[in-house]
């Protein structure tokens, strides 16, 4: 395995692990912890997801750069690009809507549930599936 492919594998699987751990374990569990109110949970979530998205951006760039410097399978390129595209949509289209809603909740406003959360989770699922496909394609080379 070349250095570029090994770097891409590392980037893809670390990215996958972070998404699974934060989005599908930490996020839902924090609201079940004793003493965590909605405002506290939202405040924690904003910080955690800002950090996650920053780390994902770095890992995505590392994986894409590593793929560009090697001769990866087409499936790995398409899957990584799909995961990166899902992240971009989250950052540009979904996170701002979630931020506006959480700002309103933190300010004490009564706001209806948001479908933006469903969009964010759907994009997380797309990222997870894409990163699994990318990792398998790179390891199957």
What do you see in this structure?
The model has no long low-confidence stretch (mean pLDDT 94). The protein is elongated, with a radius of gyration of 17 Å. The N and C termini lie close together (8 Å). Helix 1 (3-30) runs antiparallel to helix 4 (116-139) and helix 2 (38-68) packs antiparallel against helix 3. The protein has one domain (3-139). The chain has 141 residues and is mainly alpha-helical. The chain contains 4 helices and no strands. The protein has helices spanning 3-30, 38-68, 74-106, 116-139. This is DUF4149 domain-containing protein. Keywords: Membrane, Transmembrane, Transmembrane helix. The chain crosses the membrane at residues 6-27, 47-68, 74-94, 119-139.
Q: What is the mean pLDDT? A: 94
For the termini, the CA-CA separation is: 8 Å
Query: Which value, in Å, is the CA radius of gyration?
Result: 17 Å
Q: Could you say which structural class the secondary elements and strand pairing correspond to?
A: mainly alpha
Give the helix level as a range of percent: over 70%
Please report the number of helical segments: 4
Classify the beta-strand content into a percent band: under 5%
Major sheet summary line: none
> What is the 3D form?
elongated
Low-confidence stretches: none
Total of domains: 1
Topology as a string of helices (H) and strands (E): HHHH
Count the E strands: 0
Organism: Mycolicibacterium fluoranthenivorans
Protein name: DUF4149 domain-containing protein
Transmembrane segments: 6-27, 47-68, 74-94, 119-139
Keywords: Membrane, Transmembrane, Transmembrane helix
């Amino acid at each position: 395995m070349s250095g570029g492919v090994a770097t891409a594998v590392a980037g893809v699987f670390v990215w996958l692990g972070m998404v699974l751990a934060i989005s599908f374990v930490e996020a839902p569990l924090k609201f079940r912890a004793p003493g965590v109110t909605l405002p506290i949970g939202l405040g924690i979530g904003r910080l955690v997801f800002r950090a996650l998205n920053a780390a994902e951006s770095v890992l995505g760039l590392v994986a894409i750069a590593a793929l560009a410097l090697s001769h990866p399978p087409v499936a790995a390129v398409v899957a990584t690009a799909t995961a990166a595209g899902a992240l971009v949509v989250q950052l540009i289209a979904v996170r701002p809507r979630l931020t506006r809603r959480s700002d309103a909740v933190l300010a004490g406003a009564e706001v209806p549930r948001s479908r933006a959360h469903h969009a964010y989770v759907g994009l997380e699922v797309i990222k997870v599936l894409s990163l699994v496909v990318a990792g398998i394609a790179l390891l199957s080379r």
